[in-house]
Amino acid sequence: MVTVIGNSAALRKRKTLKKSLHFTVMVAGESGSGRSTFINSLCDQLIVEPSSTINLYSPEELSNPERDLQLRKSTVELEDGEGVRISLNLIDTPGFGTSLDNSMSFEVIQDYVKHQFDEILIEESKLRRNPRFKDGRVHVCLYFITPTGHGLKEQDVEFIRNLGELVNVIPLIAKSDSLTVSELKLNKKLIMEDIERFKLPIFNFNEDFFNNDEGADEETIELNRYLSKTVPFAVMGSNTTHKDPATGETRRVRVYPWGTIDVFDNETSDFVSLKNTLLITHLSDFKDYTHEVLYENYRMKTLGEEADTSEISSAREPSITTGVTSVANGSTVSQHGAAVNGLDKEEQIRQEEQRLRAFEERVQRDLIAKREEIEARERELAEIERRLAAERLHD
Ligand SMILES: Nc1nc2c(ncn2[C@@H]2O[C@H](COP(=O)(O)OP(=O)(O)OP(=O)(O)O)[C@@H](O)[C@H]2O)c(=O)[nH]1
Ligand SMILES: [Mg+2]
């Protein structure tokens, strides 16, 4: 099903868009923070069952403090008023923040994000590219913060610190309807103070990358300034829609004993600003920044590390190091080291190939390990399903 997301001609001007855009958004945050409801509100349709309507976990799983993190993917086709289609990949992370030790959760998410980068690295190094290759890089991670009135929790700090260098992290205040106007203001302030104090790498709308290029006019800079002041975006979501009998208009609302709140109402939440930012005004920026900055940094770091490892292993190889040192003016000079400064093209290519080979071998090893892990999980899952079926038979 294709959902129309509104007319965006004015907002999207200057952005060159292809006919169909692939965009990947991850939602993370502690269990029950409203991730599923947010996804449904963003897409204006039921994509993920919220935990209020289904039992995602068996009673045993719920009582297990070490419940595992899962990554759940869904894709939805959206279309704006100009016929531009967005193929939106959503990655939900149920189970995050439910363990006593959350380092495993960070690792699973981090590994996933890095793996998508690795796939690109390998594809780029191929002589013949795979025409069906799918870029699975995560362009934005929306991180749901539960408002406590005390700024960030340790888990929030660790998450952003671990992921912020790899993906555009946008912090959100979840369930903003539970806060008064002044509480919301205070929570935003405390969260931003923590982000600055711990120097957390969140997505920065004021970055030169977006405001100093040729396409950035005063309007863009102004919008970025406004968005940067809005962070963390205060959002609420709902799985309920309500048709206004007077206007015939369908609204997504939260229903309370005293009345209803429209989740898209600009007075009570930043939902619409965030939705426009994600799907219209900054979609290309998120993708460009992912490719040109985040991926590029990762590429340099990874290949640099591979180079270091291959240099270390080369240093251990007698054929390269033996017999190439000579003594001049009483000091030892490595001819291998001197050659590095004056590398000819062929030697550079050879080294680059060596690095990529080492890198590919490492990725292959990682893949095998991950596959074994998945197989073990599948066996566990089959066992749980078998047990549940047996219990159902008993009942
Ligand atoms: N007050 C309020 N409640 C919300 C909001 N969004 C979701 N909820 C409620 O919070 C509960 C959890 O919502 P979900 O969307 O299932 O949260 P989740 O983060 O996906 O939860 P898990 O998948 O179990 O980790 C449900 O009862 C929702 O109705 C919101 O914006 N405000
Ligand atoms: Mg959920």
Automatic annotation (TrEMBL):
Per the UniProt record, one Pfam family is Septin
The record's principal subcellular location, in a coarse class, is other
What's one GO MF term for it? Answer: GTP binding
Where, subcellularly, is it found?
Bud neck
| UniProt KW Coiled coil keyword | yes
Do you know which CDD domains this protein is assigned to? Answer: CDC_Septin
Q: From which residue to which does any coiled coil extend?
A: 342-394
Q: Specify the superkingdom.
A: Eukaryota
Spell out the family assignment given in the record's similarity comment: Belongs to the TRAFAC class TrmE-Era-EngA-EngB-Septin-like GTPase superfamily. Septin GTPase family.
Protein known as: Septin-type G domain-containing protein
Q: From which source organism is this entry?
A: Ogataea philodendri
Q: What is the lineage of its organism?
A: Eukaryota, Fungi, Dikarya, Ascomycota, Saccharomycotina
